[in-house]
């Protein structure tokens, strides 16, 4: 069979990385796909920018839609990011009867339901392995390899930038802004790094994982989201003294008839596996009722790892070019007519242990007031430590680790403590996962 022609929209970290991998490993890749795969066209914003791949035999344009309407292009790779323009490109490509591969988790998490409807209508594939956990083949694993299981939990470190920042602060005492700038230079961060550090990117990924794990429509709005921007070096150090590391986790758990879906920083005991996943690495634990616990580990961001996932999708698409559309793997693992909706547990009903850092005035009776309020709300203390006052400070940090507590009760206790005159700064709270 003749070659398959690819149009790539975006030649940044992921786009150029993908072209580079296709150029470097072209022979191996064609042997796997059964056909030669060649990038014939690419769209970018700036034609003059230097690219991290050879542009030989690639026609460059600034008009992404021209690739979509080019009759010679068989598959479109959407690797530019963002939602609105990317949505137009993907939908238009499908209407032009082209399969699509994308790494865009924001797009899939927020517009995936419409995109998969259109793809099914057209009998086409939209592949998105690179959208979650970089180079780790987690979509394929959950969607295909765990088909025999009722999946209980999917949880892990889903954002490479957050993990890189937390690791560098924890292990090398680096400054938050400086490490974030390095993560941007290394191509890990989103165009707007707010998406990374405020947990939105991880929530996009958890939306996708929850959907394929539990057979539900994509529902980004249902995720409780917190980022790492208010985690300080002090909290990381106090947690370490207590035997914990701070990690940013995405958690999806089946609880009776509801789903617990949340993204936030967590304390993890330092001997836990996820506590030892450092730098840009991601790790995802999946529990199925038949398989038990499984763990997937690999680089969560960057050119090579993400390109690896994009090219794997591309090979799958090329293999299916000639296959019957009705016998393909469903986009969200379950047959579209079998997708259901689940109730989502309100965050107030979540039960976890919690780390609290209070900043309180240093005078007699303060700890008594604090522990009474916690006790009245049924919050049991597992560890407590008052840190020494700095010479020029009028307040002291008090670190408390609670036993398991319902979030709503703890919220009331926190609000009451914060309303007291002894409390001089908002309480920092980090959930603790056993
Ligand atoms: P970059 O910012 O590095 O690259 C974006 C590319 O898109 C650039 O080449 C840019 O052109 C091009 N582009 C932007 N707007 C347009 C437009 N209107 N028309 C044509 N081209 C356009 O982003 P990344 O490569 O980092 O990310 C791309 C996608 O991959 C995003 O969805 C991201 O979330 C996802 N992703 C990223 C990962 C990573 O590690 N970076 C990992 C997994 C997924 P120009 O270069 O001329 O400005
Ligand atoms: N910005 C993302 C991250 C890229 O840091 O994880 C990979 O999806």
Could you characterize the architecture of this molecule?
With 434 residues, this protein is of the alpha/beta class. The protein has three domains: 4-135 and 303-338, Rossmann fold; 138-299, Dihydrodipicolinate Reductase, domain 2 (2-Layer Sandwich); 348-433, ACT domain (Alpha-Beta Plaits), CATH 3.30.70. It has 14 helices and 18 strands. The strands form two sheets. Strands 7, 8, 9, 10, 11, 12, 13, 14, 15, 16, 17 and 18 form a twelve-stranded mixed beta sheet that branches. A six-stranded parallel beta sheet has the order 3-2-1-4-5-6, sandwiched between helices. Helix 13 runs antiparallel to helix 14. The protein is elongated. It starts with a strand and ends with a strand. The structure holds NADPH dihydro-nicotinamide-adenine-dinucleotide phosphate (NDP) and L-homoserine.
Quick synopsis:
With 434 residues, the chain is α/β, with parallel strands linked by helices.
């Amino acid at each position: 069979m003749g070659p398959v022609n690819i149009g790539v929209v975006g030649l940044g970290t992921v786009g150029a990385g993908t072209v580079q991998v296709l150029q470097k490993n072209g022979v191996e890749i064609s042997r796997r796909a059964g056909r030669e795969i060649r990038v014939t066209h690419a769209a970018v914003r700036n034609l003059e920018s230097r690219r991290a791949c050879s542009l030989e035999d690639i026609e460059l344009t600034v008009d992404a839609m021209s690739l979509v309407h080019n009759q010679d292009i068989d598959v479109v790779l959407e690797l530019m990011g963002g939602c609105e323009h990317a949505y137009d490109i993907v939908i238009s490509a499908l209407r032009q009867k082209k399969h699509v591969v994308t790494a865009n988790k924001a797009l899939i998490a927020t517009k995936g339901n419409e995109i998969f409807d259109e793809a099914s209508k057209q009998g086409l594939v939209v592949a998105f392995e690179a959208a979650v956990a970089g180079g780790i083949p987690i979509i394929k694993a959950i969607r295909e390899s765990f088909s025999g299981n009722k999946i209980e939990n999917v949880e892990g470190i889903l954002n490479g930038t957050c993990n890189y920042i937390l690791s560098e602060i924890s292990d090398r005492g680096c400054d938050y802004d400086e490490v974030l700038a390095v993560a941007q230079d290394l191509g890990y961060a989103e165009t707007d790094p707010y998406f990374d550090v405020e947990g939105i990117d991880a929530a996009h990924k958890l939306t996708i994982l929850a959907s394929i794990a539990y057979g539900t429509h994509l529902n980004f709005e249902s995720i409780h989201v917190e980022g790492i921007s208010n985690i300080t070096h002090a909290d990381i150090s106090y947690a370490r003294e207590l035997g914990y590391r701070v990690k940013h986790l995405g958690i999806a758990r089946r609880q009776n008839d509801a789903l617990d879906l949340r993204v936030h920083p967590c304390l993890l005991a330092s001997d836990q596996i996820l506590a030892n996943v450092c730098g840009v690495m991601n790790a995802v634990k999946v529990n199925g009722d038949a398989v038990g616990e499984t763990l997937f580990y690999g680089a969560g961001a960057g050119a090579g790892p993400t390109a690896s996932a994009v090219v794997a999708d591309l090979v799958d698409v090329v293999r299916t070019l000639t296959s019957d559309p009705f016998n393909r793997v469903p986009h969200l693992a379950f047959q579209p007519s079998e997708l259901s909706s689940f109730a989502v547990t309100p965050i107030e009903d979540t039960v976890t242990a919690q780390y609290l850092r209070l900043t309180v005035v240093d005078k007699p009776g303060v700890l008594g007031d604090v522990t009474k309020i916690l006790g009245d709300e049924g919050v049991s203390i597992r560890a407590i430590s008052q840190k020494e006052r700095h010479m020029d400070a009028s307040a002291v940090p008090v670190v408390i680790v609670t036993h398991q507590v319902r979030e709503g009760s703890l919220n009331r206790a926190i609000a009451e403590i914060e309303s007291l005159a002894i409390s001089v700064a908002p309480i920092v709270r980090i959930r603790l996962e056993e």
